[in-house]
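hi got a favour to ask and not much time before my train. below you get a single protein, a line of residues and a line of whole numbers that encode the local backbone shape. could you go over both lines and see whether the tokens make sense for that sequence. a few lines back from you is plenty, here it is:
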Amino acid sequence: MINNIQFENQYFLLPSILIGILVFAFFIWKEWSSNTKKRFVVNIIVSGIAIICLSLIALKPTILTEVKSQEIAILTEGYKTKTLDSLQKINPNLKAEKYMKGKRLFDEKNEPSLIYILGNGIENFDLWQLENTPFKYIDGKPISGITKLKYNAKPIAGQPISIQGLYTAPKTGNKLTLEDPTGATLDSIVFKHTDHQKFNLSSTSKIAGQFLYALVEKDSLNKVIKMNPLPVEIIERESLKIAIFNSFPTFETKYLKNFLAENGHKVVVRNQLTTNRSKYEYFNTSKQNISITRNVLKTVDLLIIDAKSFLNLSKKQNNILIDLVENEGLGIFMQPDVSLFTTKNKFGTFQFLSNKNSSFTTSSSKNSFKKYNYAFKKETFIEPIHKDENHIYAAYKITGNGKIASTVAKNTYELLLSGNTNTYQQFWTDIINTVSKKRLNSVQYKSKMLFGYVNQPFSFELKTNAEKPIITNKNDVKIPLIQDIGLRHLWYGKTYPKSNGWQQLKTAKDSVHKFSFYVMNSDRFSSLRAYNTSVENKRYFNNSRTKLSNSTSNRTINPIWFYLVFLICVGYLWLQPKL
């Protein structure tokens, strides 16, 4: 209790104590020297109380008291009216305010004691306002629509475009279609009676450029219910130089080399016929000698070699490949056979687990792949290329500047023979693009966001060796950057696009390599945005350390009580000798 008492005139405290002691000492001497000492003790106590009251009048004491501040409810998109009504029944003084993006949630001078967040939640860029304020988050209405979305927004020309996602609370009989920029339907699914339905739509990218596909929801009569734009930037195909070494001709290599050649890659194939005799094939390139030597392979982007040839490399050839992978960035893909899984390879790259399933499917494929009775062992440095929820079927490992990869799939060419061309192409395109040598640009952009929204932050990363890079948008406005603490070449930026459509970021010293992204209005993919906002709010509120607490303030004690006690005490001292 004493700890809660303070004084408004704190600087009077010491003088008040000293003067009070002197006056109290005078009263003691006066009473002691008087002729009547019958009421000495009582008079001294009364005089002490009078002096204390007089001092408190000058000091103006205050007491720390709890103040019940205004509780407010922030109403975000999708809030439940019943929830708000229930809260207002409990607290009739509850103030409800509609959430406005980018605006203050409450008045700083009148900070509430508790904030209720109702609905889908507050945008990430506004959560900082709740760092020091007690809050409670209450879910909104169930979200219906696309709640998860993943697709390759920047495919290489000829590479399949795969759109995967989750539709929550679909209406039975409705369908979701993928349409090209002309409005032609490329792929579709029909919704079943279920709470959540996964979808996987695909098409093939052909011509390089920026295109606006669309995800369209239609009813059973083909009436459009909702349309969301799907921006895709198809990248011009980069011609790779690929060398294929086989200990003997195989159907797998026969169809793979044709696929690579049709996609414009420069391919050289060497099939060993006998110990001293090999057959060479050339596609999109001139005849040339090809062998496991440094001078030959240092210009190669990808080496495809069967397991038998790889395991039979001499020590010198093995050292050459290690050097080329680690220092030159060469990519190596090992075509599997049983020996790959039963023999320890020279790089010690992969470990395998027994898996008796004869086939597998991936999240991006509707068709199954035949496989060997093995799967990759999950290890720290193993990165998957093709997998499902439980197993890895194609993977790579970074070794220096390059990568080494393999798969447990076999006879993938049978997909072509059965008419599943897109599945075959996507399988091998993912492997080729992932493993082949990377030709680094002076500036590299990256963003976790598939697209942006008008007047909302779009975050990106930038890798460059420039000391102080300057990034501008399409209007040549400079964008501030923050340098990573640990990595000097890594920078982070955030821009706020003012209009929808395709936007570009570029550097002052490298205007050739631009980063393009699409900006749309906030009503697009509303269910996806609502779901992501809700998930982020739950994560933020669950991890927050903020605790509910009552607000306090210093209230000045009314001095009238001290005046009354002082007057009573002085009146007693004045009347007592006369009685």
In short: The first strand starts at residue 5 and ends at 7. The CA atoms of residues 73 and 84 lie 8 Å apart. The chain has a mean pLDDT of 84. Residues 13-33 form the longest helix (21 residues).
